[in-house]
Amino acid sequence: QLTSQVNVRIAISLPNTASTQFSMASYTFSIDEGTTGSVGNVTAVDSDAPPLNVVTYALVQPLTLPISISSATGELRLLSVQDFETGNTSYILNVQATDSAPIGAQRLSIAVVTVNIIDVNEAPRFISSVANITVSEQVAMGTIVAQVRCTDIEGSKLAYSIVSGNLNSSFSMNETSGNLTTAKTLNAEAVSSYSLQIACTDTDPSPLSSVTTLNVKLRAENEFAPAFDAPSYTFQINETRPNGSVIGRVHATDGDTGAQGEVIYQLALSPTSALFTINRTSGEIRSATVFDFELVNEYRLTVQASDLAVAPSSPLSSSIDVVVDVTDANDHTPMFAMAHYQQTITTQYSTGTSVLMVSCSDADALDRGKITYTINSFRPTSANVLQMFQLDASSGLLTVNDPVALVPDSQVNMTVQCRDQAGQTTSADVNIDIQLSLPNLASPVFSMASYFIQVAENTTVNATIGRVQATDSDPGLAGEIRYSFLPGPDMGVATIDERLGTVNLAMPLDFEAREQYTLQVQATDRGNDSSTGSPVILSTVTTVNISVTNIRDLRFNQSAYSFTTPEKANVGVFVGTISCSDYENLSIQSLPTVYNISGTGASLFDIDA
Prior knowledge:
Elements: E1 21-22, E2 26-32, E3 37-41, E4 44-45, E5 56-59, E6 67-69, E7 75-78, E8 90-98, E9 108-118, E10 125-126, E11 130-136, E12 144-147, E13 150-151, E14 158-164, E15 171-173, E16 179-182, E17 193-202, E18 209-219, E19 227-228, E20 233-238, E21 246-249, E22 252-253, E23 263-267, E24 276-278, E25 284-287, E26 298-307, E27 317-327, E28 335-336, E29 340-346, E30 354-357, E31 360-361, E32 371-379, H1 385-388, E33 389-391, E34 397-400, E35 410-420, E36 427-437, E37 445-446, E38 450-456, E39 464-467, E40 470-471, E41 481-485, E42 494-496, E43 502-505, E44 516-525, E45 539-549, E46 554-556, E47 580-582, H2 586-589
């Protein structure tokens, strides 16, 4: 007999006699729109003994609601923000409470829960939360530059206002329309932009507001032309400065901002503008050549300052006068007008009589060009030159100081120096030779009281037809004679050699037109020659009579003759007559006239002489 054994365990459970029981048959909860979180709690109990009395909560229908429930506590929570105006205003759901009996033996109950969404006052909403606008600074005061708009979901009346950022109260806001208006004249150079905080407020008993930012950028217009910081400019540059030297700087400012406030410079075109350059951005003026005070000591320029405005604005500019004074330097050495001076004077000169004037020039200006003359040295050293002569330091005029000290037939040599009056002086020297001669006492004497010259009417022009002669007993140059015709009606008939006194025919003569000419000839010594220094001029005048002699003047009565004869004419046959007339006076016309034939074919004909 076979047997087996098994262990059997028998569990005796408590009976599940009671169902879960909610504290209320239905629940109603409320939660504000726009919020989430706990809505409320449902509560159920089970009268069975533990552990059958533990209650678990769950949602039954519908399961897609935005609400959850804690299985342990029965807490209901709203999972998403609700909008009363656009969404559901309430939710109805079934909540199940189940005991903890084994599956199949569990008991449950269901309660209806209503969740109401409470309408609350929501802040108005701007249609555009942030806006950016650009406004011209030249827009007129009172101009609407923007409009802000917001909506209130409750449909409340709205009011607009500027909360902050309205510097200098430059803008005003229409409370009803939301129009933003300029309240003052705008100036981009003072304030270039505004960040306006604008509020939109509803009119509920507990009003709410929304705030947006309106960024206003001012567009700077080209309002101002560049303005120079001086009414005019005057600069100086020394004539010794090299090409490219800085002369000065002009400066202008522009009240605009940005490119419209940036200034550039240029020289207005003129005859002198090429002699200078100007830096386009700094206004620094430099020389473009080397200046010469003695040629031009002042230049006038016009400088134009312009801003860098671009479209739609147009550049503005202004101009100013600039004077450049070239200052002098002692860069020129004095120079005498002549390399050497010579003069001859007589011992009859009195005190103060001019001997000569030296001339020295210096191209510099002011004291640098003023000349002072001094006698620097003299020869012979034994001669008291400083007693004989006096030199004016300012004019360079050399005069006789003491006639008694003058020695006839002697020569004095001196060196005169001219010096400018600048601090660092420059000078030049020149030699002067002075010959002391005897005085001019005698006048020229002609060899005849008057002269008579006969000239045939057919004498050729430039032929010598006579000569006058005079002598002067003074020695040296004072005794040399020069001849000349004095002005008169017949002066053109002849010329005279000033040294020899020979008279030459200057025009054709015609006895029939005029038979007599009268000239006045003057003999002058060289007492006034620049080399003698004598103030005495001595001369004598005499008359020259020119008589024209007659020459016969035969002329054919025709300028040409033409005759015809048979080719076989006999010898002695008459061919024609040729005649001439004498145009001289009657006394000469009585002389016989003789004809003859010459030329080609003359042997074939004969003429009655």
